[in-house]
Amino acid sequence: xxxxxxxxxxxxxxxxxxxxxxxxxxxxxxxxxxxxxxxxxxxxxxxxxxxxxxxxxxxxxxxxxxxxxxxxxxxxxxxxxxxxxxxxxxxxxxxxxxxxxxxxxxxxxxxxxxxxxxxxxxxxxxxxxxxxxxxxxxxxxxxxxxxxxxxxxxxxxxxxxxxxxxxxxxxxxxxxxxxxxxxxxxxxxxxxxxxxxxxxxxxxxxxxxxxxxxxxxxxxxxxxxxxxxxxxxxxxxxxxxxxxxxxxxxxxxxxxxx
Length: 258
Prior knowledge:
- The protein has 258 residues and is α/β, with parallel strands linked by helices.
- It has helices at residues 18-32, 49-56, 82-88, 98-104, 108-120, 133-137, 141-153, 158-161, 182-200, 202-207, 218-225, 242-257, and strands spanning 7-11, 39-43, 62-65, 92-95, 124-129, 165-168, 209-212, 232-235.
- The radius of gyration is 17 Å and the shape is globular.
């Protein structure tokens, strides 16, 4: 179907103690082993990053942070920089999540700075974009989502952007049990890829992995991942349990092998 390797990423948000994080990481690492046809990444809370990295040693499961600051160091109490994320073993970082935008005042301009900073240090940004229910009902989905994509990549060419991953997460579907229909997800993913081609070139746009996020679970993963422009999933609640996350990983493998 495509040469893009599927990516299944788990966002653990503000869940799991150290012991619980190790237990979950151990179960996922055991399933993934030294590698699968799809890529797997987990994003624990910051206090568990080092412990999870140690638990994942010897497996192909990657480590993601849930946020970063754009400066390498300085008087930024409570923040983590790309330098520190790299130091603890993170290969990926989730940025621009709707919860960061809505609850913590994150802006398009700030997200763009984070994208650029992560890429400088060769940490893969997982850029989250998505519309609210009100915006969707007003027919503004593509305007909102494509505007966020443009703002986050402004001033960066395809070479600089390199391994950027985009995650389309309709806000109304996050943690609600509601999921965009597979064909609706495909429409938005296809529009994102088309806009990237216009902005940065078709060759790079065709290589970008675009994930779907928003109440992904074992029962809908295969249908979502069967769409031509859905290259994986950013999984929230279902990533907190091996019984739910591992079947989604397996759906990613089936996507890769189809």
